[in-house]
Each structure stands twice: as C-alpha cells, then as structure tokens.
Amino acid sequence: MNLDSPKVTVEKSQQYIFESLSEVKNFEKLMPDNIAKFEVTRDESFIFALKGMPEIKLKMKEKSPYNQLVLGAASDKLPFTLTGNIKELSENSSEVQLHFEGQFNAMMAMMVKGPITKFLETLAGNMHKL
Length: 130
Fold this sequence. Notes:
The chain is an alpha+beta fold.
C-alpha cells in the first residue's frame, strides 16, 4: 500500500527542514491533536500512539542530506516506511511530501488506509511548526 501526503510549502530552507526532521523529538510537533503518547526511546527512534490506536515505534532508517529521510517500523509485525521528501524551492522555502509504504494484507490495508491518509495529511500540514 502506497500513500502520499499533499505537497506542502514551508518557509524554511531545505537544510533546516532536513535537520529538524533528523531529530526525531521534533516529530512531536507534527503530531495530531489526538496524540495519546509520544516518547523518544533513543537518538533515532520514538514511540507514539493516537487515542484508540496501538503504539507504533519508528526508527530512522536512512538519511540523504538534504533531500530525504526514511523512518521505518521497528517491528516486523506491520512492516512499513515513512519517507520525507524535501525539495528546495528557494534559499528560504522548501516543498515537503511524505510517502507511506506498507506491506499489509487486503483486509488490513482497507482498515488502515483512511486513518493513515489523515495522519499523513496532518503531519505534512504541521511542517510549518518546525
């Protein structure tokens, strides 16, 4: 299952966005209002939970300065990645798009598509908070 957030323009440099997203603690600023838990577990991993949903642990998998970061599920039960693509528009302006890729069976994909799509939209929409 592949899902993309809308592309958002952020009035920050590409390097600033990349470095902000490289620090996983900053993902708390991007989370939706219905967050029930957010905890940094190591330098490059964190656990979060939305109300009514199970906890998810993410860890930094790859970094390609200053264009892309890839976070992945720390558990093999629900294998997925969350990729942040950052494109420079000008010296102080960047375009950010999030890409979710998960390997789910058809039933699971049907159940999670809506909530994940909304989650991606929220994360992207909150990029200006960095």
